[in-house]
Design goal:
Oligomer: single chain
Order of helices and strands: EHEHHEHEHHE
CATH architecture: 3-Layer(aba) Sandwich
Mean pLDDT: 85
Number of strands: 5
Number of helices: 6
Length: 142
């Protein structure tokens, strides 16, 4: 069924709603899990263009990916992790395609109209542009 599941982590409590479901799905299908986190801060957005060193945000995000990867490996799941920076939807779409993923797992945050208009939604763009199926889990706002 699924061979590789891209799991878009946002380094928040929302991940705690997504990961248990992805683990169960990976166990059922024997799929590999590809964790992806996209840093979005100012330094992350301009790091490559301005030749900046890693910001504290980027360091913490990479550590977080390592911690989650190690936890999943302890549970005997096959996992790799990727870190990117910039615009999350673009990075998710690019990585899913490049890594030949056959499912993209993400959380929804339940923003409402005004917030969505101001911030936009990563899921909306991924949903409209991806040819890969999506697995969405609603994260309870905490």
């Amino acid at each position: 069924m699924f061979k590789k599941i891209l799991v878009a982590l946002d380094h928040s409590k929302a991940d705690s709603f997504l990961l248990p479901r992805v683990k169960e799905l990976a166990r059922l299908t024997g799929a590999e899990i590809l964790l992806l986190h996209v840093s979005t801060g100012w330094a992350a957005q301009w790091q490559e263009n301005l030749n900046l060193s890693d910001s504290q945000e980027i360091k913490e995000d990479r550590e977080y990916l390592q911690e989650v990867s190690a936890e999943l490996r302890r549970e005997n799941l096959r996992v790799t992790a990727r870190h990117d920076s910039g615009e999350p939807a673009r990075a998710i779409l690019k990585t899913a395609e490049a890594e030949h993923c056959d499912l993209i797992a993400m959380t929804t945050h339940g923003h409402r109209l005004i917030s969505d208009l101001i911030h936009g939604t990563t899921i909306t763009r991924v949903r409209h542009e991806s040819h890969i199926p999506l697995f969405l889990v609603k994260a309870e706002m905490i």
